[in-house]
Amino acid sequence: MELKEKLIASFMAFENLVDVDAPVHDVRSEAIKEFEAQGFPSRRDEAWKYTSLNSILKHDYSVFPKKENRIDYNDIKKYFIHDIDTYKIVFVDGKYSSHLSETTHDGVDICLMSSALSKPKYRPVIENYFNKVATKDGLTSLNTAFSQEGAYIHIPKNKSVAKPIQIVHFSTGNESSLMLQPRNLIVVDENSHVQIIERHQSLTENPVLTNTVTEIFADKRAIVDYYKIQNDNENASLIDSTFINQKQESFASVHTFSFGGKLTRNNLNFYQNGERIDSTLKGATIIGNRQHVDHNTLVHHIEPNCESHQDYKGIFDDNATGVFNGKVLVNREAQKTNAFQANNNILIGDKASINTKPQLEIFADDVKCSHGCTIGQLDESAMFYLRSRGIPEKEAKALLMYAFSNNVLSSVKIPEIKQRITNIIAKKLGVNIGFDL
Amino acid sequence: MKYTEDDLREELKTKEYEYGFFTDIESDTFEPGLNEDVVRAISLKKNEPEWMTEWRLEAFRAWEKMEEPEWANVTYEKPDFQAISYYSAPNTKPKYDSLDEVDPQLLETFDKLGISLDEQKMLAGVAMDVVIDSVSVATTFKKSLDEKGIIFCSISEAIQEHPELVKKYIGTVVPRTDNFYAALNSAVFSDGSFCYIPKGVRCPMELSTYFRINQGGTGQFERTLLIADEDSYVSYLEGCTAPSRDENQMHAAVVELIAMDSAEIKYSTVQNWFPGTAEGKGGVFNFVTKRGICEDNAKISWTQVETGSAVTWKYPSCILKGDNSVGEFYSIAVTNHHQQADTGTKMIHLGKNTKSTIISKGISAGKAQNSYRGLVQIGPRAENARNFSECDSLLMGNDCGAHTFPYIEVKNKSAIIEHEATTSKIGEDQIFYCNQRGIDTEKAIALIVNGFSKEVLNKLPMEFAVEAQKLLEISLEGSVG
């Protein structure tokens, strides 16, 4: 059976598992119809011109894991940022793992989507925010239809969350192939601050397809820092759709580090509903053998005096393919907008390829918008400089590549994440140096 | 009284199309509609050989199965292809040997356009193949071109006299099934220019064609085929002005350039079709397919100044097939009032050490929408390919839009690609700086726009640069936001 038919058929089984009387279920029913109508995107869709899902949709995915799986903390400790104290929301094969997690209701709500969807006390927040900024395209609708589990984070007014929050999804490989649909909702009220780290990790070589949707609402003067670490193994694919609705004077940044996975698609959408908003989108991609990473970004400038900064760096080895499809949309009212977009790529592999499409759509006249895009190789004179000082070729290359992506790392606010990313890069490039220049 | 920005804006708004006039020449026009019989009739009318008729019919059959493309960032009422008359030729035949024999009314038309043939002949040294409503009526300087072995004539003449060349090259760069408008053009093209530069010849003068749409309700389907043989050089100018009309007129041209080993083609266009009124009524639909192919060490350079047309859909492209070949694209697209332009280029790098440069300047005023859409593609075997692209947009007023859609596809690791785009308006500080130095606002804007477009204007041949500058002035005086 085609995956699409299977998913639609599974929806009925899914209805037996959830409370169909909850108001959110109407949203789900709407969404499954939407998915039925639209299906999975194909390369005929302009937004998917360079990314084909065919190779990952052919597996016979289990839509619901059959049983709960326990894993031991020591086996998976390395996937956490474990050297600092954090809140943790951990899922194993899509199911919440209470013994690995550390949640709280003390002044802030850092807990589960499933309880937020079912308990009446969260109803006002769910009604106001759930599925309000997510788009209605096929994949997002699919996630909405099966939305049940994920992280629910609500930070009330004037709170700064003391510790960063880690959202980690593990898949154990107990199923021969697994499809996950995590759904996160993050609501940050006025003057509040939160830092979130998200990671998806498969523990075996069995294929996993994660279709995750995250909605983030940043109210006035809120600060949201979001870090996505994508370093999954080579049979795991990820389709990540993140929607961020910002109100005036809020500051939101999303850093995406893509080093692993078979196919990774990041849909990152910012909507600036207020004045003097700042949005930052940064990404570093270092991939090799048969990997594919696609960054699809949108910054919609709706009101005046806002800024956005996009900076995506990519290094592609072997026969890796990279896609960058960035869009800056400036409404007529959004005067004095400053929007910057940069996409720099280095091709190392003989069969590596890159497709990039940085778009500007501008309807206001008093704006400063620019984008730049480059594709090139490592600087030979810089290589020579390093080599002539006794640095071996591999290390010299690694240093230059690290320096190339350093712009993205430099704005990471949590030093431990920076360190972790640095280690991952060193491992990825096969060198044993610390880069602490 | 002080001349303010508002006055300027008012003046700009009310500025009517300066070249809007209609020459009343009795025309031989087909009834509107399109079917195989019409295609056959066009072919018959032009006294074409059997293979050409078949070629057109095949294109027509392909066209019938095709859908009108909708991906471009333009909105317009689709033309009814059955309501267009597909052939219209001035009735004053046969051809003339000298200008004296030409219908004086026609000559007057040329005068109004500022392209008096006599003047052109004497001063500019330009050979003109003047096309009025699809049929060539005057060709000058033919003799001196003949001496060099250069063939420069209308395409219908070429079909009669050089069928082997036409047969060999037509449709090789833009296949009949390439796209909807190219297929339509292949089926019904009425006339156009044909040019062949033999081996090792450097064309001594700028070749030039003026196209005009004259007869109300007739679409004009030009076909240009330009072949530069090994080691040759040619600079070709194409320019157009069209009279004011209320119903939309359609223009679907195909231009094919073939640059053989070490040849160089420079193709310049000034396009000033009727853009429609300030209310967005009327105007020409311009759907053009232009493409050139470069063999080893060859070079094709496209330069265009687009100021007219209600809707423009145009992507002059280069296929850099040969090693060390070079493609260039320099463009200024100006849109005002309700004009819409979706224009850009495609640079397809296939050979080794190929280079391409794209400089695109978009200026948008009034309620216009201006899009740059470009593709830079580096094939897996295109070692050491190099591309530099720069797309700048200037916005004037708050009702217009500027859009950039660059596609970059690289499949070879040795490629070096740079792409850069900016969007901005004319800064108040820039105007202030000029005002301070005694330059009034209107002049200051002209100065700034000129500076903005200079990189492209500089690429135009002298004769065209003057006209282009004039056009820019008309379109853009004083719309500072």
UniProtKB/TrEMBL annotation, chain A:
Residues 4-167 form the SUF system FeS cluster assembly SufBD N-terminal domain. It holds the Pfam family SUFBD_core. One of its GO terms (biological process) is iron-sulfur cluster assembly. InterPro entries: Fe-S_cluster_assembly_SufBD, SUF_FeS_clus_asmbl_SufBD_core, SUF_FeS_clus_asmbl_SufBD_sf, SUF_FeS_clus_asmbl_SufD, SufBD_N. Residues 174-404 form the SUF system FeS cluster assembly SufBD core domain. Belongs to the iron-sulfur cluster assembly SufBD family. PANTHER family: PROTEIN ABCI7, CHLOROPLASTIC. This is Fe-S cluster assembly protein SufD. It comes from Gelidibacter maritimus. The gene is sufD.
TrEMBL record, chain B:
This is Fe-S cluster assembly protein SufB. Residues 44-203 form the SUF system FeS cluster assembly SufBD N-terminal domain. Pfam families: SUFBD_core, SufBD_N. InterPro entries: Fe-S_cluster_assembly_SufBD, SUF_FeS_clus_asmbl_SufB, SUF_FeS_clus_asmbl_SufBD_core, SUF_FeS_clus_asmbl_SufBD_sf, SufBD_N. Residues 211-452 form the SUF system FeS cluster assembly SufBD core domain. Signal peptide: none annotated. It comes from the Bacteria. Belongs to the iron-sulfur cluster assembly SufBD family. GO terms for biological process: iron-sulfur cluster assembly. SUPFAM superfamilies: Stabilizer of iron transporter SufD (SSF101960).
